[in-house]
Amino acid sequence: MAKIGNIELPEYPLFLAPMEDVTDPTFRYMCKYFGADIMYTEFISSEGLIRDAKKTLQKLDVYDYERPIAIQIFGNNLDAMVEAAKIAETFNPDFIDINFGCPVRKIAIKGSGAGMLRTPDLMIAITQAIVKAVSLPVTVKTRLGWDEESIVIEDLAEPLQDTGIQALTIHGRTRSQFYRGESDWSPIARVKNNPRITIPIIGNGDIKTPEGAKNAFESTNVDGIMIGRAVIGRPWIFKEVKHYLKTGEILPSPTVRERIEYTRMHLHKSMERKGEHYGILEMRQHFSNYFKGLSNFKETRLKLVTANEVAQIEDILQHIDKTWGDLPLENNHLVDNCCKKLENL
Q1: Which ranges in the chain are annotated with CATH 3.20.20.70?
Q2: For 9-247, which CATH class?
Q3: CA-to-CA distance for 260 and 327, rounded, in angstroms?
């Protein structure tokens, strides 16, 4: 059985990908409820962390119901990354993850995230220094390479393993692809099936359906799969995938009425953590995503995302129930639309 440090992974483990402004603690609560096995905080700037930036420190909150969970950090300065890892360790995650894969321009162009793929020696040095500096397991998440002319993951995997990391997650795209085109899992499979690789390999990229998850496991032999954009507006994808892997059956998509109940659950958890005012503000993007795809919904959506009180939201949810409650609703299109705005950052 594959392990990350002392963390035993279940058969066919499902990982929730870290996503900025999406995978906050309340959304992670929903994903855990539906069966996510391993989760990560939103990625955290090492520079912000060592400066005690308030917004950055809030991302360090982890809860026992989320375990196993990692705090993920990014940056390109060795000393700052080591110091950030030490600070992160004091917040008691189960492991520390290093982000060498974020493609967002304002991060990658400065040499952090996926930008580290252009400086592999520094990537190795930072990883090795963090492994030595903390007592928790350390893992890495990265991509295939910077662009099509520099697919380096197969050459990087062994040196990364040699630093002492306990697992490696690979997104099947280059940085230049961002989220365009299709992810290529063949390099991921070659890394996993390299006889010199002994750490768990987790595959990431375009897992949108239960069938896609099963195919990823069977065609690559990876130790786990990470689901990212497909979980936005659809945290129950973990339940769908697990059911399919176990039974071969496709669960029906939740009706609008069921989504209303999930929305209530998410809202109450958000308010429990942040209070009514900020809990509602935090939920606005999720309101849109849970009901995206409903026809003739524009006016109701506007009311929902501008409501300031729980009573108002409840009235709107009751209206949604009466109008659309029994309808099934597919929203796989969110996978293609949700991250387009990031390309210009």
Answers
A1: 9-247
A2: alpha beta
A3: 12
What b/e string do you get for 241-252 counting C-beta neighbours within 10 Å, with b at 16 or more? bbebeeeeeeee
pLDDT score recorded for residue 80: 96
3-state DSSP assignment of residue 172: coil
What class has domain 256-324?
Answer: mainly alpha
With CA atoms as reference, report the closest residue to 126 among 83, 167, 169, 171: 83
**Nearest Cα to Cα of residue 248 among 207, 211, 215, 209:** 211
Average pLDDT along the chain, 345 residues, taken 10 residues at a time: 93 95 92 97 91 77 93 96 96 97 91 94 98 98 94 97 98 92 95 97 96 97 96 96 97 93 96 93 91 90 95 96 82 47 46
Maximum C-alpha span of the chain: 59
**What's the whole-model pTM score?**
0.92
Active site residues: 102
Three-state secondary structure along 180-225? CCCCCCHHHHHHHCCCCCCCCEEEECCCCCHHHHHHHHHHHCCCEE
Please give the pLDDT value at position 331: 55
The helix or strand, by DSSP H or E, that contains position 322, with its residue range, turns out to be: helix 310-324
CA distances from residue 300 to 262, 303, 324 in whole angstroms, order as listed: 18, 5, 11
Phi, psi at 78, each rounded to 5°: -60, -50
Looking at residue 288, what is its pLDDT? 87
Beta partners for residue 98, in sequence order: 73, 140
If residue 143 lies in a helix (H) or strand (E), which one and from where to where?
strand 138-143
Q: How confident is the model at residue 54, as a pLDDT?
A: 66
Residues of the chain with CATH 1.10.1200: 256-324
